[in-house]
Amino acid sequence: MLQRASSLRRPAGRAGGFRLLPALRPHPVATLLALAVAVFSLLPLGFIAIVTFDVGWETVRTLVFRPRVGELLVNTVYLELATIPISIVVAVGLAWLTERTDLPFRRFFSGLAVAPLAIPAFVHSYAWITVLPGMRGLWSAVFVAVLAYYPFLYLPVAAALRRLDPALEDAGASLGLSPFWIFIRVVLPQLRLAICGGSLLIALHLLSEYGLFVMIRFDTFATAIVDQFQSSYNSPASNMLGGVLVVCCLVLLLVEIGLRGNERYARVGTGTARPSTRHRLGWLTLPCLLVPLIVAALAIGVPLFTLGQWLWFGGIAIWQADMLGNALIQTILLSLAGGVLATLLAAPMAWLSVRAPGRVQRVLEACHYYVGSLPGVVVALALVTVTVRYFMPLYQTFATLLAAYVLLFLPRAMVGLRASIAQAPVELERAATALGRTPRRAVFEITFRLAAPGAAASVALAALGIANELTATLMLSPLGVDTLATRFWSLTSEIDYVSAAPYAVMMVVLSMPMTLYLHLQSKRVAGQ
Amino acid sequence: MTVLSIDKVSKRYGKVQALDQVSVEASSGMRTAVVGPSGSGKTTLLRMIAGFETPDSGSVSVGGEVLADAHRSMPAHLRGIGIVAQDGALFPHLTVADNIGFGIPRGDRERTERVLSLLEMVELEPGMLTRRPHQLSGGQQQRVALARALACRPRLMLLDEPFSALDTGLRENMRKTVARVLQAAGVTTILVTHDQEEALSFADRLVVMREGRVVQAGTPQDLYFHPNDRATALFMGDAVLLPAIAKGSVAACALGNVPIVGEHKGKVEIMLRPEQIRIATDGSQQDNTGQVVDVEFSGATSTIAVALNGVALPPIRIKTSSVALPAPGAYVRLDVAEKAHVLEG
């Protein structure tokens, strides 16, 4: 009865019921705020357009069509083409072993497979350069990048494998397919969405990563832009490189959309899926155990071992309380401020996208999301240019730095908020008003209360990302600001690997909650 | 000729005895239905025939070839046994044409023609070929799943509750179509279902399972009118169960002297299907078998509850034509058509 009543009410609320319940109208204030944030998030694109227009086509041509850019482009393409297929093989192999076989200790291994995410990419390269000082060039970059980023593929692929309807595999077998061909013709196609999503994430990270590739001495757009920026900040040359980088990002987004297709891979039909049976490995158990062990040894063992080694060499002396404490406090304050700000700014859009979805809202939402896939260097360049030109007093202030954080982590803040606002259906608010609350009080007492945990999660997600952000922080931070990441970076640049170790350890510790959250999230999605 | 022969198969999952010494046979071209409540082991049996489970003991043979016993089991993909699952289990990433053609080797020249003829066989339009599973209705999905399974020319077809996800109206229609298609293809079929009505109307032969055991097997008529025990009697449909004293071929019960199947003596329990009982409206205050306590009008037929004289039983419920219904409180006399069945035990 209850359900029926609410479903009867919903269309009424959309069509004619607004006069009775004015607060439920898609809030004009929310729309205005979301619009403002969306315009703000278009700033990096706008900056590219303005700069291109400013310097004129002739300069653009000389700056973009030159051997150096071609070289960087070739490097980037090789890096993407080598890293992504290898990551797919590693991630799908690991996910299949942990999710679909009777591998011993598979729960432990599934946690271990996600763990490399807790180690920032530039700490990975710091560890490897310690072990093998001669590492440099494309293949070293690919090697470390795979180890640092394959969990971005492992997470969605493992979740997809868990959700897969075993009836499909049974159908394949009954139609005469051997287990190998079932994997190729039935299982793998179902993983397409997960593989596309994870690959895109890795591809974007490869474009924006700075620290990892500098240490391995592999030139990408990101490293070249920072170099250029440090020698002559706000030069047309670095801005144009930024433009090319943005084009690369957009190309990747389009490629992914094309590859993903618009098919639905949801389970067809009704009824609950039978829990899937695990494949027996038999005599293959021992060789198969080696796979997750080797990956874990390379992706976690080596970083932890080198960190331990440096800590051991350094002893108590490297834990300089004032420097370290200062960096830690600054990092925490900056992260929390950025996280809270990003969540606040994401709130109007999250609200609209749940409560009043429509065509305009979708466009605004896309603006909120795309900006997160832009590299930190581009966002930083845009903010530098804009502040230097129009708001000079803001140049190299906390405000600019926080603005960069908001732009970079807006999508993260959106995700948690959207989910939690969706959990506070409008019916509850209506029930509260029916019980005598004013619409405003109903929103505060019901919706805000229910959305609070999700908002907290959003703050945490964004803050944890900010804590390890290196590139934008390096380029934008006011004088005297040292986060864990920038401090670590300046120490390693001076080849003081020993003193850098405590900072790396603290970044790893700060990343752990985020990693755990992602791991649990992927389990929850699969209903476990 | 016996196509499928399951011999004393047992299977245990931890503490649960899923199958206990189950033996089932199916002859060539026949449609056999395995019915039972959920948890009776019928799905385990089906999955064992398909090759997705292995027996702890006993054996499964098809066409005289042992497919599985306690020691070895032929993998599912080598068995050549078709299966249609509850929701069709169509591959969501493939079109209808690719789904149907999935089991036909790629190099096969007649692949396209065969897909078309199979589509026609399951009564779908050729325009469907390029559609994706999510664009099909439940009934269409089942038809495609059936065509896909038939494409491999299976020696045995297994249907795992294929109609239960469909709407009631569609279900009957689909049942007839599937029966017709399988008849035309001449494939021996095993249907697993918890719906006795479906089993009765679909199959030539029924196997009733309960708690991992086969409790009775026979023709639909046999199982409906002559169930071995109370539980089967109630599972197969509505039943009126009455205590009686048997004297040879008749039994004295609350409905008077009723002819019974076979010869019995002493206290027995007899079973009648409600449609065997007819209301003779001329019941008078003196000469009657009971009093109408409730009348439930539901269109063409109505259900009448009659409290029988002289027994402390709940009123029996009889379906009757809605024409000239007796009023609640009226006295009625009840006649019995055909013989009553005596339950064992």
TrEMBL record, chain B:
Superkingdom to which the source organism belongs: Bacteria
Gene3D superfamilies, per database record: 2.40.50.450, P-loop containing nucleotide triphosphate hydrolases (3.40.50.300)
SUPFAM superfamilies: MOP-like (SSF50331), P-loop containing nucleoside triphosphate hydrolases (SSF52540)
Annotated Pfam families: ABC_tran, TOBE_2
Keyword Membrane among record annotations: yes
Keyword field: ATP-binding, Cell membrane, Ion transport, Iron, Iron transport, Membrane, Nucleotide-binding, Transport
Molecular function per GO: ATP binding
Classification via PROSITE patterns: ABC_TRANSPORTER_1 (PS00211), ABC_TRANSPORTER_2 (PS50893)
Family to which the UniProt record says this protein belongs: Belongs to the ABC transporter superfamily.
Protein's name according to its UniProt entry: ABC transporter ATP-binding protein
Record organism: Rhizobium oryzicola
